[in-house]
Amino acid sequence: MSSKINAWCIVQDHLDTLSNEQSNEKSLLDILVFYVAPLVAALLFYFMYGAIEKDAIAAAISALSIFAGLLINVLVLLYSISLRPPESLNKDSVERLELEKRFLRQIFANISYAILNAVLATVLLVISGMVAGVIAKVISSISVAFCINFVLTLIMSLKRIHMLLRRKF
């Protein structure tokens, strides 16, 4: 695969944020919430509903496209925040600056991953609208898992941004 489109580094950076802050080890609960729960929901969707209807596909594609565009703007905002010069430095402000940098790195990784997730979910939704039968059901279910993971990642990013900015206000 071309290094220009290999997005594994985005996935890896996001996975690195799913760790316990105290022990710095991967959080089993985070893995369960962000990956196992969406897969279980996708399996339930497969057996209960099957394929996503055309109207729902169009609505999901529209929503994901809008969110992806807005999230790209958030990445630009994060970049501009990272460029600002530090305030006068004392021991407390150095610790706070390091905490902010860590939060900004995590938020950057999570939002980049959410954008990638939205793109992949959109592609899968388009494909599911073009096929029929069992293939449509499988692709629809995978799309559901991506969409749930997208929403969970978005909520986590929102919480991290809130915590970062809460200290400013």
UniProtKB/TrEMBL annotation:
Transmembrane segments: 32-52, 58-81, 111-132, 138-158
Keyword annotations of the record: Membrane, Transmembrane, Transmembrane helix
Highest rank taxon of the organism: Bacteria
Name of the protein: Uncharacterized protein
Protein source organism: Azospirillum himalayense
